[in-house]
Automatic annotation (TrEMBL):
Entry superkingdom: Bacteria
Name of a matching Pfam family: Rhodanese
A GO MF term: thiosulfate-cyanide sulfurtransferase activity
Gene designation per UniProt: glpE_2
Enzyme class: transferase
UniProt cross-references to InterPro entries, sorted A to Z: GlpE_sulfurtransferase (IPR050229), Rhodanese-like_dom (IPR001763), Rhodanese-like_dom_sf (IPR036873)
Record protein name field: Thiosulfate sulfurtransferase GlpE
EC number(s) recorded for this UniProt protein: 2.8.1.1
Domain Rhodanese: from-to ranges: 17-103
Keyword terms: Transferase
Length: 104
């Protein structure tokens, strides 16, 4: 299993089509509040391990992760896969290269 890395165009299409069961913004809260993907929840990278059961209570698959530059989302995605999650996605190059509307 591997983390599915998708570009911003594909992510934007999938978000519009409600193809993700959960979207997690891994950045710090102030960056999340400055602009995030629609329906995204903010769980910073250092809080993921403490929130695995909460995440599992929402869904076990179809999870989109994103961070500032794409590195943390891949690392966290691997953690989720090792913990039994399925269909984990990462925004290629992070939110800095996302060319579509962000929400506040």
């Amino acid at each position: 299993m591997k983390v599915n890395i998708l570009n911003s165009k594909k992510i934007s299409e999938m978000v519009k089509n409600n193809e993700f069961k959960l979207i997690i913004d891994l950045r710090e809260e102030e960056l999340y509040l400055a602009g995030h993907l629609p329906e995204a929840v903010n769980i910073s990278t250092d809080e993921i391990n403490d929130n695995l059961e909460h995440i599992r209570s929402i869904t076990n698959e179809g999870i989109l992760l994103y961070c500032a530059n794409g590195n943390q989302s891949i690392t966290v995605g691997k953690v989720l896969l090792l913990d039994g999650f399925n269909n984990v996605y990462s925004l290629a190059n992070g939110i800095k290269n996302y060319k579509y509307k962000l929400y506040k």
